[in-house]
TrEMBL record:
Protein name, UniProt field: Schlafen group 3-like DNA/RNA helicase domain-containing protein
Name of a matching Pfam family: SLFN-g3_helicase
Lineage: superkingdom: Bacteria
Residues of the Schlafen group 3-like DNA/RNA helicase domain: 181-568
Originating organism: Leucobacter iarius
Length: 583
């Protein structure tokens, strides 16, 4: 039996003034509300719904809204209302029926007494609103979408909220002082670096466009920055977010396309920044460790562009310049989101450059660590455990709770379970290290003209065959993804509910020493093996081993609810059995 009710009120001054309130709850009870027309929607929470509607009615930007729905529940308190308000904003934005016109003024993902008991109620409210036509997609579809996972309205855990508040404080101080600055936001996989970056850009745009504190909910964590003085400091702000990875960049561009105040054109490559004729005030760089040093690029035209940008920005082309130098030359303030242990190719920023930048940021108190791991439900120790396991440090397996972590001897059984989990939970995919040649690459001569079903298979294990990801952009959500295997270049930066990870023969166990070692003869990523002729660097097996182990560490930390593992090399499989429970 549901205890909530939905009061629908025409969004007109007379209707609001005269609306009956026999129980008094519309004027003195915690409530959540949504005001919309056919195109836009605004969501809020309040302790006096009728008064708040009257206030909103006076806002010229809400004059076109035509109906208010007030959600009441006997058990509601302010913490539950904050929680539901945040969820509704994320659900409406992700569903895409309406344009959410809220400013991003801070939504905190905080615990409160009885929170778990409210979650089923919130889902009942969603279903009620969906029956009223306010949502198009199911809740599972919404919460599995990139729009939800990367939402600029994402509720932030205290760790993320602290980082954004400290960044804003430092940024406004630097703007007022006329200082050029580099900030670093560092965190392991699953700490939400990308969400922090997107949320930060949205917040800056909303502050810039605001007319003062009325544009933020009173008492929100960011409301002070909507006050007089701060919007003026951001006047004519030129901001962008740089995303080195093509697949993730495409997804973030879609996010920006849907969010008011943001533009798809603000999602950039490093080359876009380097070629820009007008510098940026603020550049946020996601996965900054994936920026390139001076190395052979993926095409002749990019090699030429690299040299031309160096010459234009620095007066000469030199192997010492990296894409990070472009970012710093072309922006007054740059905010780098990074994790050095997620570098996966030798062409990525050199470790010494990352160390230098991190050291500078710490020295200037512009270093903001993220420590709360939110992706993997196995607990905070899982990431370190995976890295230690691959490094051969023989870690003790942490308490995993309900997390499904299993080693398979039969890859066919692992695939069956991935397909089963995809039917019930969605977003379950097979992934692998780059230990098989990409024969089905659509860029190969004549391959693009072949229907997918007629292209050769790339991976064959014990009679089971798969192709590598046929979609380079947004592969995880592509129609053929469940029948294919994703590489690091299509899954880094994304969440899965369940990940099936195939560890190829590019890693093996050294029988004599018991160490996990890289096997160059089994590694198929040409760019991952390529020496840096421009800088005269020849990469040793030990150096490439670091990147390959980083790749598997990333793959093993994609699954929110579970990770299944199949190891091709028999000796390594037996070695890992001591760390991964058998299926």
């Amino acid at each position: 039996m549901t205890s909530f009710e939905v009061q629908e009120i025409p969004f007109e001054s007379a209707s609001i003034r005269d609306y009956p309130d026999p129980t008094g709850k519309l004027s003195n009870w915690p409530a959540v509300y949504a005001i919309n027309n056919q195109r836009d929607i605004y969501v809020g929470e309040t302790g006096n719904a009728l008064l708040r509607m009257t206030q909103h009615r006076r806002d010229p930007r809400k004059q076109d809204l035509d109906v208010a729905r007030i959600l009441l529940d006997d058990t509601f308190h302010r913490s539950a209302c904050y929680d539901l308000e945040s969820l509704l904003i994320q659900w409406f934005y992700s569903d895409g029926v309406y344009t959410v016109i809220n400013a991003n003024d801070g939504h905190r993902n905080e615990e409160y007494a009885g929170r778990a008991a409210f979650q089923p109620r919130f889902r009942e409210i969603f279903e009620d609103l969906r029956k009223r036509g306010l949502f198009r997609h199911s809740l599972r579809e919404i919460e599995n979408s990139d729009f939800f996972k990367l939402s600029p309205f994402k509720s932030l855990v205290p760790d993320q909220e602290r980082a954004i508040l400290e960044i804003l404080k430092a940024l406004f101080e630097d703007i007022e002082a006329g200082r050029r600055t580099t900030m670093v936001v560092a965190g392991n996989p699953g700490t939400g670096k990308t969400v922090v970056g997107i949320s930060l850009v949205k917040t800056l745009r909303d502050i810039q466009a605001s007319r003062g504190i009325d544009d933020a909910e009173q008492g929100s964590s960011l409301s002070d920055y909507f006050a007089q003085g701060y919007p003026e400091l951001l006047e004519r702000l030129r901001v962008g977010i740089v995303v080195p990875q093509q697949s993730l960049r495409t997804s973030i561009a879609k996010i920006f396309d849907r969010a008011p105040g943001l533009e798809r054109s603000e999602v950039l490559t490093a080359y876009d920044v380097g070629k820009a004729t007008e510098p940026y005030d603020v550049l946020v760089v996601d996965e900054a460790h994936r920026l390139n040093q001076r190395a052979n690029q993926s095409s002749g035209s990019l090699n030429k562009a690299f040299a031309e940008i160096n010459e234009r920005l620095f007066g000469r082309d030199s192997t010492e310049f990296t894409q990070l130098d472009w970012i710093r030359a072309q922006s007054t303030h740059n905010i780098l989101l990074m994790d050095a242990e997620q570098s996966v190719r030798p062409a990525d920023l050199p470790p010494e450059v990352i160390g230098e930048v991190v050291g500078e940021a710490k020295a200037s108190q512009h270093f903001f660590p993220l420590r709360t791991q939110m992706r993997v439900k196995a607990g905070t120790d899982y990431i370190g455990f995976v890295r230690d396991m691959l490094a051969g440090r023989n870690p003790e397996r942490p308490e995993l709770g309900d997390y499904e972590f299993a080693l398979f001897d039969d890859i066919g059984e692992m695939e069956k379970l991935i397909r089963k989990r995809d039917r019930t939970e969605g977003l379950s995919r097979l992934t692998a290290g780059y230990a098989w040649t990409w024969e089905s690459d659509p860029k190969k001569k004549g391959m693009k003209r072949l229907p997918l079903a007629k292209r050769p298979y790339d991976i064959e294990i014990d009679g089971h065959r798969w192709r590598w990801n046929s979609a380079e952009k947004d592969w995880i959500n592509s129609p053929d993804a469940l029948d294919e295997v994703g590489s690091i270049h299509t899954v880094q930066g994304y969440d899965l509910n369940y990940a099936g990870v195939i560890i190829g023969r590019d890693l093996r166990l050294e029988p004599r020493t018991g160490e996990i070692r890289f096997d160059r003869s089994q590694y198929r990523d040409k760019k991952g093996l390529e020496n840096n002729r421009k800088r005269g660097i020849v990469y040793t097996d030990a150096e490439i081993e670091r990147y390959v182990k980083n790749i598997y560490s990333v793959l093993l930390t994609r699954g929110i609810r579970g990770t299944y593992v199949y190891v091709c090399e028999e000796g390594l499989r037996e070695h890992l059995r001591a760390f991964i429970p058998s299926a």
